[in-house]
Amino acid sequence: MHSVRSVSLDDEKYTLASGKIYKNKPTPVRILRIFILFTVMVLGVYCTVSLNTIHYLGIKNMAFPTRLVLQPCIQESRKSLQSWIKPPASVLHTMNDAELLWRAAFAPQIERYPYNRVPKVAFMFLTRGPLPLAPLWERFFAGNEGFYSIYVHTMPDYRANFSRSSVFFERQIPSQEVEWGEMNMCDAERRLLANAMLDFSNEWFILLSESCIPLHNFTTVYSYLEESDFSFMGSFDAPGADGRGRYNDGMAPEVTIEQWRKGSQWFEVNRELAVMIVADTIFYYKFKNFCKPDCYVDEHYFPTMLTIYAPELLANRSLTWTDWSRGGAHPATYGEGNTTYELIEEISESNLCTYNDEIVGLCYLFARKFAPSALESLLKLAPIAFGY
Ligand SMILES: *[C@@H]1O[C@H](CO)[C@@H](O)[C@H](O)[C@H]1NC(C)=O
Ligand SMILES: *[C@@H]1O[C@H](CO)[C@@H](O)[C@H](O)[C@H]1NC(C)=O
Ligand SMILES: *[C@@H]1O[C@H](CO)[C@@H](O)[C@H](O)[C@H]1NC(C)=O
Ligand SMILES: *[C@@H]1O[C@H](CO)[C@@H](O)[C@H](O)[C@H]1NC(C)=O
């Protein structure tokens, strides 16, 4: 190996891997051989350099036209299945929303996968920036590598600062401005979904905020999703000002008042429903134009659309517990003093619900809202109360 690499092209002699040394006059065949060797080496170096350039620039400069540089190498190789299903090396990319949604909506038309696909859960964090409860999540994820992926949407100018060993390291997707109750909130949720869908292994997609916590260990969460016949999108027909009262006649005929639904923003959908959400162009403009505050579009768009498209796939309830007992537009927040074992007991015992057409006691996998000051209490409670 070494001797071949160390050949100098204008040397009289060259050494083969076998160790034999040949003395040569420069015959046409020999010149041809040297020429071929030279060409292969130049191509090799060219490919390596351009791939490294792409890797480097892909991270440092997202606007670089990588396709132009990549072409010679791609044409060289014969595609394996692996090259289509391999997750992207980085969550960064140069696509705008239109390009991203279009790409993410690609879906196979054959139900069976021709390889051993291990389905993953995509945890999608919709945040302003920091993730103060990250240490709790780190503990939840530990030891479950290969069964989850993480995506974080922040305000566009926020730069996350996780260490290399963190599960959140370099999981921040290209993000844009989000305002509470506006359509750009749904845009961010679709952006999170679309980014997560670029990894073909992701099968279940969960939307979370920085104030959410997991109530059970990872294996419980995973099997709850895997064994469910339905996706956990909250969706109900609510009479009154906060429900049907937010319906606008401009939505007809695509959405009638009977089809109008409300549900929690914090959803879980499977890949089939995720494709419907990112591919939608019919309902999108109806909601963008006719559901503006006091119509909070993030509570209506996905529940209504999916109830029209695929009601038989919906559990119609959310997996995220929220304390609305105090009334008002915002739920209760728990902090240092009131994040207690009693609270966790209250959450897990408070309800019965339907799971695969049976009545069960395990209804919530996540809960909100928890303030940064709750972190210490949560870390102490986790081993007994949550099992991680
Ligand atoms: C990022 O984290 C490192 C160490 O974890 C710290 O030294 C640095 O100050 C942080 N930078 C910002 C902008 O928070
Ligand atoms: C997760 O929790 C369940 C239910 O509490 C328990 O049976 C299981 O052993 C736990 N799994 C791990 C890996 O801790
Ligand atoms: C959810 O609601 C839809 C109608 O809105 C219904 O068709 C579907 O059966 C419900 N799902 C479950 C699991 O009950
Ligand atoms: C919990 O305590 C915090 C202060 O740490 C307070 O702001 C909050 O309102 C309390 N929440 C509840 C539900 O009592």
UniProtKB/TrEMBL annotation:
It is a single-pass type II membrane protein. Keywords: Glycoprotein, Glycosyltransferase, Membrane, Transferase, Transmembrane, Transmembrane helix. One of its GO terms (cellular component) is membrane. Signal peptide: none annotated. It comes from Nepenthes gracilis. The keyword Membrane applies. InterPro entries: BC10-like, Glyco_trans_14. It is found in: Membrane. This is Core-2/I-branching beta-1,6-N-acetylglucosaminyltransferase family protein. The keyword tRNA-binding does not apply. Its main location: membrane. The chain crosses the membrane at residues 31-51. One of its GO terms (molecular function) is glycosyltransferase activity.
